[in-house]
Amino acid sequence: MEKKHYERPHIVRLDAGMPGKSGLRSELPPTTHIDGVAVAELIEKYGSPLFVLSEKTIRNTYQKAYKAFSTRYPKVQFAWSYKTNYLSAVCNIFHQEGSWAEVVSGFEYEKAIASGVDPKKIIFNGPAKTREELVLATENGSLIHIDHLDELYMLVEVAESTSQKPRVAIRVNMDTGIYPMWDRFGFNYENGQAWDALNKIMHSGKLELMGLHTHIGTFIMSANAYAVAASKLAELARSLQQKFNHQLKYIDLGGGFASKNTLKGSYLPGSDTNPTFNEYAEAISSALINSHFTPGELPLLILETGRALIDESGYILSTVIANKRMSGGRRATIIDAGVNLLFTSFWYQHQVTVAQGTSQYREDTSLYGPLCMNIDCIRESINLPLLNVNDHVVIHKTGAYNLTQWMQFIHLRPNVVLIDEKGEVHIVREKEKLTDVSGSELIPEHLVKINQNS
Amino acid sequence: MKINHNLAVSESGFLFNPGTGESFTVNPIGAEIIAMLRNGKSRTEIIDSITQLYQVDRNSFEKDLQDFNGILKTYNLLEKDE
Q: How far is CA A400 from CA A72, A159, A404, A424, in A?
């Protein structure tokens, strides 16, 4: 006789009453397949934990975002934010779709060049560019976004020493009515720093002022904040036109669009409450079109959206290591993917589903990772089916920032695979080996032997 | 491991404790274990029975049974001497 499927015994006390302020519990169907590929097969072939990226979702999301803007504004250009996810395969998908590169360090700049991006289509942001990097970017004709006066003066020197005119914009920070106001990047609008910097650039005659840039914050839940930012940059552009008869080539609204993830402390899921690309596009396009620019003068609109373009295409597949009870009776489940891989679990309530069919029984569970560190908690409280050891779970919307901010900490990092549009699976980053970590270490002669036999 | 003999248990996994007025739901395996406890089966007999019927090894089920026993205790569903 064939044995029946096992589910661990479970009993729960019934509490009759009104639903809480978060409403009734939601139940999500199992995620048995991603883009037609079985989760169980992916884990069997490539190991657990496993990062999975969907090329189809990346391209669809990009196309949806581009369409939202290009149907409202005549000249739109996306620049892929490398820091969000700089796996070469991912960057190249965005470049194939038409994105420029937006980099924030010499390392990212080199990566973009190595991928074959036209240097003139690289935007070099960031507060810490070295002189050597500025010389290289100047000689390559890349777009350099100046963060502070020290960089501005250094660029003037670079221009003099290279006899080339760096192509520049300034980064502008401003009050857009949201909290917190990001003012650590660039020059402030309200107190006149930005206008002062623009005057210095124009009077120097050494730099080619191409545009204006702002990055108002991250995970911005109000599309209107971008309308305020666009209006303020348009005002600066008008002042430049009036005083210097200088017409800017572009306005760059940076990134910061919210993805569909749910921030910790939210009552409603991000997929229901966060602004859509259409809402962001409507706010920004209307602000620019309604400004002083005549139709022929409208500058190129550059967007450096990262998170909202890639978050939904990423998954982490993980396996249950153990179930246990906490001292207060709460169920705790340990899985093999922790905060070392899922940095974003510090601020998101990541959606977690199981990868196999289950009964209707659910249990309020704390979901922990495998690290021997108290901070390694993926979800403090989540309703999950009765998981057995070796069951698989799928963590959703992990495409942004995790593959750049992950850590080699306690465990080696796993394989990353990309499922292409035909359903073929490709390893795009191999799992780490001990030599990847210890290979760059050097041991002084007197520490080579550890005398364990004495 | 003796279950409170006053409990009312339905076949569909609904459990009522008339002593406290509390109600519970229990999944099918949990209901089978409670039924065996009501019939006076020992811990070893329960383990033998479940591991013969279900796709679970003895060690895994022993661990789950111990956990289930703990929850029954927490809910005051076991006899006081347990």
A: 26, 36, 8, 22
